[in-house]
From TrEMBL:
Keywords carried by this UniProt record: Carbohydrate metabolism, Hydrolase, Magnesium, Metal-binding
Pfam family, one: HAD_2
GO cellular component: cytosol
Molecular functions per Gene Ontology: metal ion binding; phosphoglycolate phosphatase activity
Gene3D superfamilies xrefs: HAD superfamily/HAD-like, Putative phosphatase, domain 2
Taxonomic path: Bacteria, Pseudomonadati, Pseudomonadota, Betaproteobacteria, Burkholderiales
Principal EC category: hydrolase
Taxonomic superkingdom: Bacteria
Transmembrane segments: none
EC number in record: 3.1.3.18
Official protein name in the record: HAD-superfamily hydrolase, subfamily IA, variant 3
Organism: Verminephrobacter eiseniae (strain EF01-2)
Amino acid sequence: MTEAVLFDLDGTLADTSGDLAAATCDALAAVGLPSPEPHTLHAYGSRGGRGMLRAGWSGDLDDALFQRAFTVFLERYALRMYESTVLFDGVGACLEQLARGGRRWGIVTNKRERYTRPLVKHLGFQPEVLVCGDMVPQSKPAPDSLLAAAAALGHAPAECVYVGDDGKDVIAAAAAGMTSVAALYGYSVRLNHPGLKGADAEIGTLRALPSVLKDLAQRKS
């Protein structure tokens, strides 16, 4: 039986793409580069600040210029990360059903801790465990953060399911020995990310997760 469900944050529980895109455009403009329309960057929300900057500017960025832009991105995102971020449909209902079923849950994200903790609090989440990308030696697609979360909950990896919207989430879950569920409503599906096809199951909304967990349990029994 699945004892714990771990979730990615950006693109899985919360749609943070608007604020990430706005900070990206601010950063590019600050270093003298043209900024794209913010909505064109939303699909890259799971790639973090560095990935968003690369998506926003297709030309060459030397290391010094890129670092300047990234520094501004971090500053601007800290100021803007509550402006348009919202929960995806079905988050509340899903977490309530997990609690009623006695399943524990947590968040495992590549986002830095300094941004994740205040955002999680702002969104009203109370996960039993929270592991961020800068809290472990290697972030996803390495399994370190998923294994750390399972250990913190006192569960074997095989007792955990990881839900994420990016190919690196599927890879990390497999490396950790966890079952993976691809969130097809998230960002990477818009880019036809091939890594999602390797997931053990798929959902089009978090409302479907409880029934998918039952199906996965039946497969294992």
